Each structure stands twice: as C-alpha cells, then as structure tokens.
Amino acid sequence: MKQRSSPRWSLCKATASLELVASTVFLAVLFNFIQGAKAQSYPNYSPVRYQLLHTYEGPSFFDQFNYYSDDDPTKGFVTYVNKNTAHALNLTSTTSTTATLRVDASTPSPSGGRNSVRVESNNTYDSGLFIFDIVHTPYGCGTWPALWLTDGANWPKNGEIDVLESHNHGSHGNEMSLHTTPGCSMGGERRQVGSAVESNCDVGVGGNAGCAVMGYRSTYGVGFNAGGGGVYSLEIRDAGIRIWNFPRSSIPADIHNGSPDPSTWNTPLADFPSTNCDIASHFRNLNIVANIDLCGEFAAMSSHYTQMYSCPGSCSDFVANNPSNFADAYWEFGGIRVYRAS
Ligand SMILES: *[C@@H]1O[C@H](CO)[C@@H](O)[C@H](O)[C@H]1NC(C)=O
Ligand SMILES: *[C@@H]1O[C@H](CO)[C@@H](O)[C@H](O)[C@H]1NC(C)=O
C-alpha cells in the first residue's frame, strides 16, 4: 500500500501539476489547432498538363468495352444482354460520330426483366481527366441510368464515382456521388455550383447514400438534351475529384482542340476535395461503366417512382407492359476521351 503524501508536499505537487497540466493543455490545443488547420485546408488544385491516353468514339466505340450480362446486383427488373444480343437487338449501335446504348423499346411483356445494356471499359484508371461528350441522357418512368466508374470485383474498396446518375423522368438534375470504404468524407471548403447532399462517402453510412452533390435541373434529362447535350468532365487526382458540366454551346475551346486545362474552366458542378479523404487510397483500378437499369433499389423507391414523378402502378409491371415508354431511354455519346497527367 502506498504512503499518503504530507499535506504541504501535496500542495507543492498540486501547484506543479497544475502548471504541468496547463502547459500540456496549451500544447495539446496548439497541436490540435495546427492539425485541424492542416486537416481542414483546401487542397491545392495546381494546373496539370494532360495528354491524350485513350479515345472511345465512332464505329470502334464499343470495341474496348465488355458487356456485363450477369444478374443485376441492385435487383432491377432488367436483363443485361451480352455483346451479340445487344448487336442483334440493336441495343448498342454506332455511327461515324456517335455511339448509342438503349433499352428494348419493342418487346411487349418480357418476363423477369426488360432487355438493356451495361458496358464496362476494359481499361482501368487510377486518375486522369475524362471528357464525356454526351448528346442524349436517358429518361422515362422506371429508368435508373448512370455513367460511373468503379472496380466491380473490388467494390467498395476501390471506390465508386457516379458522374451522371438519375431516375425516372430525370428532370430534378444530375446526382454526382462518391461511394467508399470508411474514412472518406466531404466537409470544409468546397468550390462547386451544385448542392451538397450528404457528407459521408462510406457505403456503410446512411444506407449507402454516398456523399452526393445535386446539379441544377438542366444538368440531366430533357433540359440537358435540349441543346444537343454537352460535355461532362471528370478529373481524378490526389487533390480531389471534380466534375464540370458544359452545355453544347459553351464547351471550352481547349476541350475542342484536344488540350483540356481545367485550371482555366469555371467553377465545377461538383467538388470532392481531398481535405477529409485520401483520394489515391480510396479510388483506383476503375472501369468506366455506362448502363440503364430499370426499377431496382433506386428508381422503384416509392419516394422516387411514385411521389417525385407520379409514375403509374408498380415499377416492374409498368416496365414490363409499356415498351413505348422507353423511346427516350437511351444514352448517345459523341465520344469519350481520357487524358493522363504528363
Ligand atoms: C439502331 O439504333 C440506332 C440508334 O438508336 C438507330 O439510329 C438505327 O436506325 C437502328 N438500326 C436499325 C437497323 O434499327
Ligand atoms: C483488356 O485488358 C487486358 C489487361 O490490360 C488486356 O490484356 C486485354 O488485351 C484487353 N482486352 C481488350 C479486348 O482490349
């Protein structure tokens, strides 16, 4: 058993400890302040020189894409067809300047799911600048289209970036989002035109809502398509992930002439800075994916399908029985160009 100290000694010690505590507290506060300032400082998006790496366009657009034909992991009323079937049904097609992916808009009452496509680039990317020239975005009751990047075999470890995502009539604007493992969130300063929805990108939080940013209405659907679509640009780098949207009439000249320089562009639509997210460790080995899901966990939600868009009856009944509903359910791309930092 330890001896109790004498009162006097105790007092001395107490004063000394108080000083020690005070200086420790002061140092701790100072340390946290510096760490906090460091953790919350906006990243340096210094100019990067980009050089062309891959081009997907015209008649060869689909050559470097694989057709995903397994069951839809998100339980949609959809049958993703393989390459031969997609060709035979004309669900993917090209011209000299465009590539189209569409939903089967003729089969009367398919059972088990309506035919659609989901293509995934064979090339994988850790970073870079992606220029998506989009002529038409798909929409219509029951649709859940997306243009995104992910590593399907290593999800969510290697991350998911949703560049375009919408549902049903799609006139509420484009929803851009990141989905990750724990330890990636958005907060502090962001320089973006869109509106932040959720801050935690962890798929385990908020029912995998992701850390989404909503674009204004004409960033998707009828409003976007009206002027012949435009360009979406995605930049993935250690400093952060940014997405820009340019209507056809205001595509920067440096995109047209093949030397894109994001440092000269306007404020992005979405900004996912690295402030509270180590981009390089959360995003890698990503395929470019374009698909049109039907119903599924997102489009069929009653808050979306019924309340937001007043789509009729049950999603799968409607999708099965109304082929003509899918006339506008198509992606049309002018091409995709991928640049890497030189
Ligand atoms: C195939 O689809 C494309 C794009 O939707 C369309 O322009 C073309 O006419 C179709 N071809 C046939 C043979 O139906
Ligand atoms: C797909 O990528 C792999 C690995 O990079 C490569 O070996 C293969 O040739 C590619 N296939 C096509 C069709 O481009």
From TrEMBL:
Q: How does it sit in the membrane?
A: Lipid-anchor; GPI-anchor
Primary localisation category: membrane
Task: Give the superkingdom in one word.
Answer: Eukaryota
**Hydrolase keyword on record:** yes
**InterPro entries attached here?**
Beta-glucanase-like, ConA-like_dom_sf, Glycosyl_Hydrlase_16
Domain GH16: where? 35-314
One Pfam family here: GH16_XgeA
- Keywords noted in UniProt: Cell membrane, Glycoprotein, Glycosidase, GPI-anchor, Hydrolase, Lipoprotein, Membrane
Q: Where in the cell is it found?
A: Cell membrane
Q: What CDD domains does this protein map onto?
A: GH16_fungal_Lam16A_glucanase (cd02181)
Its family remark reads: Belongs to the glycosyl hydrolase 16 family.
Name under which the protein is recorded: endo-1,3(4)-beta-glucanase
